[in-house]
């Protein structure tokens, strides 16, 4: 059926165009021969094609445009006729003899245009006559196009101020009256279309009406272009007349479109000065009208107007624009109790944007808008509609975008109350927006109260909200969210130690409830912020609580006592907090690193019990949680390195911790790892800047133990693969011997180093050894270092002089079973077992060789 109707319309349109073109041909021939009567005859027949009721508005428009083009040519002919002496008055009377009213009125409008141009009669009289005559066509489509033609031919002939058709003092009033009258009649015809035809074709008629709306709206555009319309005339005549027509038509499509036209075509300053009248019409509109969009566009235009120049802001204050808009929105919502939540949020979002542009310094206005929004949302529960949540995000993002400062936004008491209506996912999105704003603007949040308020806003990222614990989360998104929280924690700072400590406690309170997945991201930045505070307190030499003019020893001691008490309170309290925090992190390697960092901070503050507690927790974690062999290797070297730098421990505590570290080292899974960890422990017994930690014997014991483990590794390699493996471990131990020899350890003597040199040489020359270029290069570099130290001269050169590295260098370059002594030319035997390595106290035996 629909297809048949479309095909019929195409046929009717084709027939109409054919008839129009045929009559236009004869009209052109009459025009060429200056035959006025035939021209009028065929033009009337041509225009009769527009009398059809079979075409849809879209098809009718195509037919109308062809007739319009022909009428322009006819108008030019009428101008020529008047130049040739034909009376325009007679011509005006002549065209009214056309048989049908529609062609008659088209011809009358065409001649009327020429009549006005001739100035033989006042423009206002001709226009008044034309607009009244057009009432003869009451068919909606035909009448709309006829009046559109009248508006088109008369728009440049209105008696406006400065126009060549300007008349007496009331000429602008006449122009306005003509346009308003034409607008009113066109709107009536447009609305009448809705009520013609069966109810089942309602959607079709609405579509057709939408296609014709610009015909009506052009009248408002013409009104806005009349120069003589000042603010007073707009306020007293134009706007009330237009709004009266809009409200009285009681048609949703017309009301929405015409209100939008009013907002778009007239100047912003006119809207501002007539807010009372304009806003008063909104509650009177039909319930189905999309008021939120129209009103939002009005506020958007006013916001842009306010942003265009600071000079216009006093006008907004003068007319109390905010109060009027806020009141109007309330009335609109009351008048439409069924307005969707989306509409309510959209209205308040637009009002907030307006407020931030016009009154950026009035936080109470912004908070009032948010409060009104909360009031309307109360009892609605979490918003789940995607469009609604997006609008809430837009509403909450407005203060962030305007102020570029979360601190200012935190002053809005209703801001977090609006946030509560977001679902979990959107809450996270909003939290991310807030953090990104802080990062972008490098906002400084420096009080515990503001941190508390901020973390309430971003709680969607720092802990599981209701119903969120079991939701599947994309891992990459989760990591990005938590990394943003970690960066935020690093930005929190206050130069006042007491306030900074409060900030740290506030952050800790929030993040500890984040669950095991979040803690590895959020606890480390909190720990390092705390350690930064600790070192800040430790490094302060001046009064952190404020300066005083007079300083006495008593006051200095009081100050030191206060500072020390604050420092110890901070560190000791945080020790307990951190132990609790780190113990629940599901990442033992990370937790161990943080324990050791805290231990170092306590060491810097000379707080031995605190440092010992952290080491104790690190050891417990190592024993109970770290089982992977590679993780154990990394952990034990971290422990050794940290313990080596500690100076706060007494003899007993240090011995206890050192003994545990060496015990862990010897229990690693692989022999090479054991060896490296054991010789690393030698540094625990010899610390350069600590005179009380220089135990040469225990250093030697560690190195000997490392040698035995290296020897065992060689034996295991020989048993498993038939070769002794690399000598890298022996070279590494040799370097440790050289280090402690150079540092002045009396237990490391030339004999021990010489024996170890010969051992490495023998191992490298052995037929069962595995070639290892890296080990060869390492040993060569070690020998070169010995020679370099000799060449330095002085005490260092004298110390290294007894070490005979040259036969080893020659052997390394050209391996042979024995070396020749350069002194007597005889062979020199080289040690073949570890038994030869001696320091006069303890010898190592190599089994199975």
From TrEMBL:
Entry keyword Membrane: yes
Entry-linked Pfam families: Vps35
Keywords for this protein: Membrane, Protein transport, Transport
Family named by the database record: Belongs to the VPS35 family.
Organism of provenance: Hibiscus sabdariffa (roselle)
Descriptive protein name: Vacuolar protein sorting-associated protein 35
Subcellular location as annotated: Membrane
Record membrane topology: Peripheral membrane protein
Source domain of life: Eukaryota
Phylogenetic lineage: Eukaryota, Viridiplantae, Streptophyta, Embryophyta, Tracheophyta
Role description: Plays a role in vesicular protein sorting.
